[in-house]
């Protein structure tokens, strides 16, 4: 018996489509690449040729009209996710949308509602959700390994490295370091800690000259540095500093509880590490120790995020990460922008008039 393959369409034939979605669909025995669409017809044609995809279009509505397309990857610019996701849901296609879900909260709400109305599966492109590091930390927290969680502190720095200029323009990207990189962290914060109740944030643009693909982007207008304090519904507190204006890459996430602490260290050269300590252990066993952890390759994390949708559809399994999670991560990011722009703390959930202030 031949295995059933899910018919896949790609909307947006750029870097992430060619670098992560297509190679990982191509090696998945339960995926069949059916069609690709891009407003740049040459990008659609070249991508179709490269991956042996039988159909290519300049208009994604033609891709959605193809009955062999059962699920889509939406890999357009960040500010161009909403229309194709809503149209895909209306056409009965299952969806994985790249991050961020959208740049405006109204769009994210409309996307989640459209998928729910159509009864299609809708997941997000946050590959670290499948990392062993995040899953290990989540398990430790759920098992109560550090007791009642009191605080989360995040520091995350790296030099900016973008290939294409749209990442640096508010109108297309919706924001800078917080929207592009911080959106993963926002998802992680919600997943580890539960809902945030109040934020106070500030942002800056330290680098006056921004580059993408080695070229100066004269109309770059997004923030490169953000600092925020967080108050969680659980009562825990948090701080979050993120920048792509640093010359060095360094960072950590620490979580402190009534019985111990967890620390994750990042950085390509050292690899992820995890330390725990418990105060309820015999004294001679107390202290930091590194848990054995061999992290998945980045490509394996991408494979799993795509396979997650395929399994959800073909095996009718529940999604572990949904469009609604993407929407909540966006709300956290937008609330920090809102706070920075008003110099006031912002409460979540954001009230309707404030939602979608975007940037
Ligand atoms: N998960 C990750 O690791 C990761 C990494 C990079 C980018 N991304 C996300 O993936 C998305 C795409 O980023 P990228 O680096 O591939 O950008 P890119 O500029 O390389 O590619 C985007 C493509 O979308 C096309 N496009 C734009 N609007 C369209 C529309 N309405 N219909 C059809 N095609 C359209 C563009 O012509 C372009 O070819 C963004 O949301 C980005 O944040 C995710």
What do these coordinates show?
The chain folds into 2 domains: 6-128 and 301-319, Rossmann fold (3-Layer(aba) Sandwich); 131-295 and 329-347, Dihydrodipicolinate Reductase, domain 2 (2-Layer Sandwich), CATH 3.30.360.10. Helices cover 33% and strands 26% of the residues. It contains 11 helices and 17 strands. The protein has helices at residues 15-26, 41-51, 60-65, 82-90, 105-118, 132-142, 170-173, 177-180, 182-193, 298-314, 323-342, and strands at 6-11, 31-37, 55-57, 71-74, 94-97, 122-124, 149-159, 196-204, 211-212, 215-216, 225-232, 237-243, 245-257, 260-265, 273-278, 289-290, 346-347. Strands 16-15-14-13-7-12-11-8-17 form a 9-stranded mixed β-sheet. A 6-stranded parallel β-sheet has the order 3-2-1-4-5-6, sandwiched between helices. The protein is globular, with a radius of gyration of 21 Å. The model is unreliable at 267-271 and 353-359 (pLDDT under 50). Bound molecules: nicotinamide-adenine-dinucleotide. Nicotinamide-adenine-dinucleotide is lined by residues 11-17, 37-40, 43, 60, 75-78, 80, 98-99, 125, 127, 164, 166.
């Amino acid at each position: 018996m031949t295995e059933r393959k899910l018919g896949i369409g790609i909307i947006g034939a750029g870097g992430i489509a060619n670098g992560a979605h297509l190679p990982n669909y191509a090696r998945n025995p339960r995926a069949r690449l059916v069609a690709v669409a891009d407003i740049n017809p040459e990008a659609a044609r070249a991508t179709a040729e490269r991956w042996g995809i039988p159909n290519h279009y300049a208009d994604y509505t033609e891709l959605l009209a193809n009955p062999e397309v059962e699920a889509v990857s939406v890999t357009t610019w960040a500010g161009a996710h909403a229309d194709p996701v809503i149209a895909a849901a209306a056409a009965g296609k299952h969806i994985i949308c790249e991050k961020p879900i959208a740049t405006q909260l109204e769009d994210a709400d409309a996307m989640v509602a459209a998928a729910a109305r159509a009864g299609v599966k809708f997941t997000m492109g946050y590959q670290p959700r499948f990392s062993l590091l995040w899953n290990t930390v989540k398990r430790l927290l759920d098992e109560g390994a550090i007791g009642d969680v009191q605080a989360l502190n995040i520091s995350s720095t790296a030099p900016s490295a973008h290939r294409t200029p749209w990442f640096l323009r508010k109108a297309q990207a919706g924001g800078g370091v917080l929207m592009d990189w911080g959106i993963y962290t926002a998802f992680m914060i919600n997943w580890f800690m539960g809902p945030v109740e109040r934020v106070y944030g500030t942002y800056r643009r330290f680098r006056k000259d921004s580059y993408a693909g080695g070229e100066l982007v004269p109309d770059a207008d997004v923030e490169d540095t953000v600092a925020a304090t967080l108050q969680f519904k659980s009562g825990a507190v948090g701080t979050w500093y993120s920048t792509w204006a640093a010359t060095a890459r360094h960072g950590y996430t620490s979580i402190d509880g009534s019985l111990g602490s967890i620390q994750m260290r990042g950085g390509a050269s050292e690899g992820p590490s995890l330390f725990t300590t418990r105060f309820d252990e015999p004294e001679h066993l107390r202290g930091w120790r590194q848990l054995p952890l061999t992290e998945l390759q980045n490509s394996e994390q991408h494979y799993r995020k795509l396979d997650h949708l395929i399994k959800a559809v073909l095996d009718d399994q529940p999604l572990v990460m949904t469009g609604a999670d993407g929407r909540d991560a966006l709300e956290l990011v937008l609330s920090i922008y809102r706070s920075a722009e008003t110099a006031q703390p912002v409460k979540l959930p954001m009230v309707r008039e404030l939602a979608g202030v975007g940037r």
